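As the next step, I selected for study a record pairing a protein sequence with its backbone structure tokens, which the following lines show:
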Amino acid sequence: MDYQTGFFYFFSAILLFAALRVVTARNPVHAVLYLMLAFSQAAAVWLILKAEFLGLTLVLVYLGAVMVLFLFVVMMLDIRIDSVRKGFWQHVPLALALGGLVASELTAMLWTGFSNLTPVAVNAAGVAAAKSNTHALGMLLYTEYLYPIQAAAVILLVAMIAAIALTLRHRKDSKAINPSLQVHVRAKDRLVVVSMPATVAATVNPAVNAEGASK
């Protein structure tokens, strides 16, 4: 076993452990941290498999932006673990069914192999032609799969706008001021002038004065 195979098994073992801890951790913050660990190990596996673009994209996009955002959101929300775990066992059969379906698909893919892949181009000396995976992926994305990429971008934009609209809540205890109301305010609506005499003579109650004198 060479060193690449050893690193592959090492990163894969950590990846499986982190993925298991994501679904078994009781603290949601710990689950997010384990998910970040799983993404980092998956990126390392992709780098070993010479998928540099996917590995770097996973690190920059998910670990650098998405998962950090998830971590901040989970830490800011007041998540009650007891109420979340009440219906855990009700969803176990569905989770096992979906997990078995995914496992069977992966097994079938690995069992049948990748027979539809085109062979690697070689030169006259029998050496594979040097071509970057990033260059080949870019050519496919922006030529053959241009319309699906545009459709995915539109769907992500709609999902982002929907998430913002769903999380936009008006708090009753907020002291924010509407600028349009300030501009259109009138003095007579905010200030009332009451006419009253300058001085008022104090009234004296004889009974109260007599009671105070007796004490």
Summary: Residues 1-79 form a domain with the Four Helix Bundle (Hemerythrin (Met), subunit A) fold (CATH 1.20.120.1200).
